[in-house]
Give the backbone structure.
Amino acid sequence: MQHRTVQDLMTHGVVHARPDTPFKAVAAMLSHNDITAVPVVDDRNCPIGVVSEADLLRHEAVLPDPEGHAPALRLRPSDRGRAEADTAGGLMSTPAITARPQWSIVEAAREMDRHKVKRLPVVDETGQLVGIVSRSDLLRVFLRQDTAIGEEITREVLYRTLQVGPGAVDVTVADGVVTLRGRVGSKSMVPIAVRLCRAVDGVVTVHQELEFDADDSEAGAAEKPNAAGVIGYTRRH
């Protein structure tokens, strides 16, 4: 099966800032390009941080309320320094949490969740910026057509991988939800089929109504037919 990678989904032409880019220039970058953050890169084009809308808003939030209604924010010294900065280098969040082009969607999603970030600058083997991938980019796989998902499951999962004959299993897909109905060779193939289907890009979940020809589970292997063809149980020591 061919899975989409970060390289397939990322934005290649990345708007970025330098450490000395002024506050207003960063704000203009976000507005003109309809984006919510920009990576900050050094002289080697390697990401060293990210400036987001939240970083710019923090700068405004620490200013005194001209009407005197809201109390001043209390920030730690390090946060106050960022809030009062006037260049990208002072405003940015560090370090830059990055991804690699060959990463799977799962790897990128886990990295975003682990660090509680909404986007990842993408770097090559030298650490240089080559793209950026966001949460919305990763979610694009769920826009895949149901027919394409069903065809891949039938062709790649059932026929080529599990060698299930044509027509043995019926595959239906509705809004990314896959249902498998039919018969496979052994009981152990059922969870394998479900797991492989779950890994297909665009699948939300998998339901199965599968029967099997042979019970190759531990319990099933303990049942042996006797000479009369009647199922009996082997003694376990």
